[in-house]
Amino acid sequence: MTAPLVASALPLPLMRRGKVREVYEVDTDTLLLVASDRVSAFDVVLGEPVPHKGAVLTQLSAFWFERLASVISSHFLSADADEIVARVPGLADHRPALTGRAMLVRRTTPVPFECVVRGYLSGSAWAEYQKARPLPAGLVESARLDPPIFSPATKAEVGHDENVTVAHVAQALGRRQADQLQQASLALYDAGRQHAARRGIIIADTKFEFGTTPDGRLLVIDEILTPDSSRFWPADRYQPGRGQPSFDKQPLRDYLAGLKQQGKWDGNAPPPSLPPEVVQATSERYLKAYELITGKGLEIG
């Protein structure tokens, strides 16, 4: 079994080390994204890596980018290690860090908002609903939302993202781009959840990121419809009125939420340690999500 990758170190200019990914500059038009096995929850990076997580994020994103290209174009170029090495020969000796977890992408100017779509009332949306009830009264936890709700948020490399209104996005970016973001997000979610439903998975919610090209085109970037950016529920076990079993990092979220409720963690860095069984359960769910959605096994370097 390949050891988890906590951080990559490639002979390319490192542009950014995010919560999960390293972003390298290949040239003026192209970037290389390498997904580590680091994991974040409640916007905090945890100390323990989750085996195979980075490979799931990369390969599942590649699957979706190709499948949903007719909905909106993406920054995706290739996730094939041979193609990457052919393009960047200096990486030939670093194939283990590339196989299954690296992606060549077009360079864009990122839009400074996360585009969240909620199809079910769960997570922070359920917590907010219980306090403020801005939606129709009488909804229960995990209730289906028809139509799905577009809920943008600010991006935060450090600290917590903050929900904002569509009007706030329009004021910052202009009405035209705000409308583009909303329409693209809802269309991607709808197409993605239709495919997932045929595979026995409910995509309860998700978040998209977008970037613009020099000629002004909007592309979906980063990752898409993965267990890191989405809540995946088994359709055959769905039951409104309670929390749902999941194929994402819910075991990890649940463990940390329990510590917060007990007053053992305040939700900020440094994070608590994760028990091995929580790490293993999370890894197993990532792998299961990939296999169910794509219908094939994961390529593991």
Task: Write structural notes for this entry.
With 301 residues, the protein is α+β, with helices and mostly antiparallel strands. The protein is built from 8 helices and 13 strands. The strands form 3 sheets. Strands 8, 9, 10, 11, 12 and 13 form a 6-stranded antiparallel beta sheet that branches. The longest helix has 24 residues, at 175-198.
Q: Major β-sheet, in short? A: 6 strands, antiparallel
SSE pattern: EEEEEHEHHEEEHEHHEEEHH
What share of residues is helical?
A: 25-40%
Rg over alpha carbons: 19 Å
Tell me, rounded to a whole number, the average pLDDT: 92
Q: What is the tally of beta strands?
A: 13
Shape: globular
Helix count, per DSSP? 8
β content, as a range? 15-25%
Q: For the terminal residues, how far apart are their CA atoms?
A: 9 Å
Low-confidence parts: none
Q: Structural class of the secondary elements?
A: alpha+beta
Summed up:
The protein contains eight helices and 13 strands.
List the keywords.
33% helix; alpha+beta; 301 residues; 13 strands; 5-stranded antiparallel sheet; single chain
What order do the helices and strands come in, and which of them pair?
Blueprint: E1 14-17, E2 21-25, E3 30-35, E4 40-41, E5 44-45, H1 53-67, E6 76-78, H2 81-87, H3 95-98, E7 102-106, E8 109-110, E9 113-120, H4 123-132, E10 144-154, H5 166-173, H6 175-198, E11 201-212, E12 218-221, E13 230-234, H7 250-261, H8 276-294
Antiparallel strand pairs: 1-2, 2-3, 3-7, 4-5, 6-7, 8-11, 9-10, 9-11, 11-12, 11-13
Helix pairs in contact: 1-8, 5-6, 7-8
